Amino acid sequence: EKGGYDHFMLKEIHEQPSTIYDCLRGRLDAEKGTITMKGIQDNIQALITAPRYIIIACGTSWHAALVAEYVIEELCRIPVEVEYASEFRYRNPIINKGDVIIAISQSGETADTLVAIEKAKEQGAFIFGIVNVVGSSISRASHAGAYTHAGPEIGVASTKAFTAQLAVLLMIALKIAKEKGTIDNTKYSRLLVEMHELPEKVEAILKNASQLKLIAEKYKHSVNALYLGRGYNFPIALEGALKLKEISYIHAEGYPAAEMKHGPIALVDDQLPVIFVATKDEYHAKIVSNIQEIKARKGKVIAIITEGDEIIPSMADDIFMVPPADEIVAPVLSVIPLQLLSYYVGVAKGCDVDKPRNLAKSVTVE
Ligand code: M6R
User: Fold this and answer.
1) Taking each helix axis from N to C terminus, what angle separates 234-248 and 330-348, rounded to the nearest 10 degrees?
2) How far apart are CA 85 and CA 138, in angstroms?
3) Do 237 and 255 contact (CB within 8 A), yes or no?
């Protein structure tokens, strides 16, 4: 049942070329330049004219929401707020006429997300669900939605569900931007091709998984770890830190890279691994100077970089390269090495990676 892999987590990480493909299949046609999503088409007016989107989720799904915030605001020019479902449900949230609520959940059974949806519905909001489990409570409670089609996820740590959530959110952003006229045709066509190429790029990353096993061996005795990223990769830093905590019980924190000067830099010494999500994008020069700041304080730098990067390899202690990609789709790639790193650290420490202590696959109580 684990398909020859030692753990479900590893199997599910390796399934990502096909789960991303399945998620795009029948929806995204890069040649024709079309995105077909019934839940979006049927509600296109509400989605285009919405004054604001509010995305609610928990855990890893909340990290997918943060990526979506950046992408939707950039491509669709619609203001987006991202809320933890657990906070949203208790704080008498302001929902204005026309606001759209997007709820993201792998299981479709997360209690806080479900109650948050019910609260928003009472205030007349339109609910769009992005769910993996077909027929789950959240899919039934939503007015419309899109399934992620990642297949059953058994490992408690969300991996393939996350990349499928990103793929769905990117398609939604592109479709709405196209309908709304906030993206030019060249950029739209180019990004569709970039999406289409994701499965093979993920495959290429997975071929180098053993490099991360070696890095994991070096850092498995660490007590703390810091994850830093900027822009579209900032939520990926958060996700990398969450994965490491869950799977290896190493205390890890994620921050926007520039924020480190406002506190976390105090943690840096010659024992601290700092994982930079530093793929080529418009912030590259900035992240290079953040790496210099960590090295000046003798921190250990592990950097996820783009193939062909000529600057970071000479600065970092360890690097892992991912194929070049537009910065908007890059999070789908940069998260994969972070999933693998957590997996290998967890295994090296003898942790139960499929069922970490104290965690449940779906949190159906608050
Ligand atoms: O099923 P959901 O997506 O609603 O679950 C949300 C979180 O409980 C979930 O992502 C959790 O954080 C995972 N253990 C992350 O790996």
Assistant:
1) 20
2) 12
3) yes
List the residue whose alpha carbon is closest to atom 16 of ligand 1: 157
pLDDT of residue 293: 95
Active site residues: 361
**Ligand 1 atom 12 nearest Cα:** 59
Q: Which atom of ligand 1 is nearest to the CA of 138?
A: 4
Residue nearest to atom 8 of ligand 1 (CA): 59
Mutate-to-test residue for ligand 1 from 62, 63, 110, highest number of ligand atoms within 8 A of CB: 110
- Amino acid identity for residue 200 in this structure: E
> Does ipTM top 0.95?
yes
Beta strands at 224-229 and 144-147: parallel, antiparallel or unpaired: unpaired
Ligand 1 surroundings by CB, under 6 angstroms: 58-61, 105-107, 110, 113, 156-158, 246, 359, 362-363
Separation between Cα atoms, residue 231 and residue 286, nearest integer Å? 11
How far is CA 35 from each of CA 327, 329, 330, rounded to the nearest angstrom? 20, 16, 20
- Of ligand 1's atoms, which has the minimum distance to the CA of residue 59? 12
Could you tell me if 172 and 146 are in contact, meaning their C-beta atoms sit under 8 angstroms apart? yes
Which tens digit of pLDDT belongs to each residue from 133-164?
A: 999 999 999 999 999 999 999 999 999 999 99
Give this prediction's pTM. 0.97
- The residue type found at 85 is A
Amino acid sitting at position 73: E
Token pair recorded at residue 248: 């290896």
Q: What are phi and psi of 220, to 5 degrees?
A: -65, -20
